[in-house]
Write a structure and sequence with these properties.
This protein has 17 helices and 11 strands. The chain is α+β, with helices and mostly antiparallel strands. The chain has one domain: Cytochrome P450 (Cytochrome p450). The strands form 3 sheets. A 6-stranded mixed sheet has the order 1-2-3-9-6-4, with helices on both faces. It has a 3-stranded antiparallel sheet with strand order 5-11-10. Helix 10 (about 160-170) packs across helix 11 (about 180-205). About 40% of the residues are buried. Bound molecules: protoporphyrin IX containing FE (HEM).
Length: about 400
């Protein structure tokens, strides 16, 4: 049976301003589609996406395929990616992940609360002094970027450079970037790697109390990490650690503004956790991830071939009406909103506890400290379907 055909163009504003109506069509037509622009079989149903993410017959890496290696314009980018957790599977992935995971244990993440609060307070003071500002650049962005830079051990003065490099690099994940964007991403990867290498060299002489030093000290243990592995890990944490959180926070503020709910009430201590989960369900920041089929696989009526890539529509899974009735309604009182914003299975987001904490702290603070801010209605989502986030969110006090 032929699959439902999605003809939407990922870079067409009519699509990326509202991908959810396309998702609704996929759900209405069986939950699986062939997306012409990507030439990809894509899964939208919650149960399919969840099960595939947890199924070891699917992976982010497959033997014989080196990520981005075929593109000479991406040589430096590829060198960073090859040791990234997101490009590893099996025992290599497990070994590196278990080291990084130690840094994200609940007890440690909770201890970051005062730091996050003080960053939020500083951002709020700045907005107050200016009588308003763009909440994406002035509020959503500085908090996660500084938190992750502190954690890794990079100076906050370097954060603006890191953000520029990160923005350039993540364009490659959209698969729709121009040749100039490709080259800019490669140059950013080269500069980023050089900065981390310098930081590693400094710590070799003088260890500090930070993640870079701890990753380096692993080299004295039985199984050393190479500098390139440490560089890839630091870059992944910096990119993953802020980019999605910024968009999630921006999308959250926009959703709350348009919801008709009392922002103070739905971000009160008793409700904030559920509100954040519903926000991550309603308008998540990451929408499409791919997997290789590591075997010939029969999935329902479909025969998937070894080596074939498939698409997993995380944003669509959260809008599956079978799991979340009336999915296009933002309802902070929805009981147990079901979403896959942080993925599932072996690659489940390491930073999920940190991202949740940042949102649970920063959202209530903005409504309490800037109670009468008014958002301009003039905003739109940026041209980047995989990373769903607003261009700006201008407010006046
Ligand atoms: C709202 C914010 C965030 C969202 C929505 C998000 C989402 C995701 C998703 C969907 C994946 C899985 C990708 C896949 O299965 O292919 C992932 C992986 C990852 N995330 Fe996040 N993330 C967020 C914040 C963070 C933060 C704050 C950090 C670190 C400080 C982080 C670090 C990572 C890492 C290292 C991985 C790779 C894990 C692995 O491959 O084993 N993320 N994230």
């Amino acid at each position: 049976m032929a699959l439902y055909e999605v003809t939407a163009e990922p870079r067409d504003p009519r699509f990326y301003q509202d991908p959810y109506s396309v998702y609704a069509q996929i759900h209405a037509n069986g939950g699986v589609a062939h997306w012409k622009a990507y030439d990809l079989t894509c899964f939208a149903g919650f149960n399919d996406v969840d099960a595939i993410l947890k199924d070891k017959r699917f992976g982010r890496a497959i033997e014989g395929v080196k990520p981005y290696a075929e593109n000479p314009d991406l040589a430096d980018f590829a060198a960073c990616e090859v040791h990234s957790l997101l490009c590893l599977e099996g025992t290599a992935h497990k070994a590196l992940r278990s080291r990084i995971n130690r840094e994200f244990i609940h007890k440690y993440i909770i201890s970051l609360r005062p730091n996050i609060e003080s960053l939020a307070n500083a951002a709020i003071d700045k907005i107050k002094r200016a009588g308003g500002g763009d909440l994406i650049t002035e509020y959503a962005m500085p908090i996660p970027a500084a938190v992750i830079a502190d954690l890794i051990g990079i100076s906050r003065d370097d954060v603006p450079r890191l953000l520029d490099w990160s923005h350039a690099m993540v364009k490659v994940y959209t698969d729709t970037q121009s040749i100039d964007e490709t080259r800019a991403a490669n140059a950013a990867a080269r500069s980023f790697a050089a900065l981390i290498q310098d930081e590693i060299n400094v710590r070799r002489k003088r260890p500090r109390q930070d993640l870079l030093t701890r990753l380096l000290q692993n080299q004295i243990d039985q199984s050393p990490l190479t500098d390139q592995e440490i560089i890839s890990t630091a870059i992944l944490l910096l990119n993953a650690g802020h980019e999605a959180t910024v968009h999630a926070t921006g999308n959250a503020i926009w959703a709350i503004a348009n919801s008709g709910y009392d922002a103070i009430e739905i971000t009160a201590p008793a409700t904030i956790e559920n509100t954040v989960e519903e926000l991550l369900r309603y308008d998540p920041p990451l929408h499409l991830f791919k997997r290789y089929c590591l075997d010939d696989i029969k999935w329902g009526n479909l025969l998937l071939q070894r080596g074939q890539e498939i698409g997993l529509l995380l944003g669509a899974a959260a809008h599956d009406p079978a799991e979340n009735p009336n999915p296009s309604k933002f309802d902070p009182y929805r009981s147990k909103p079901k979403h896959l914003a942080f993925g599932a299975g072996a690659h489940f987001c390491i930073g999920a506890p940190l991202a949740r904490l940042e949102m649970q702290i920063s959202l209530p603070m903005i409504y309490r400290h800037l109670p009468s801010f008014k958002l301009s209605q003039k905003t739109s989502y940026a041209d980047s379907f995989h990373f769903r986030g607003l261009k700006q969110l201008v407010c006046q006090l």
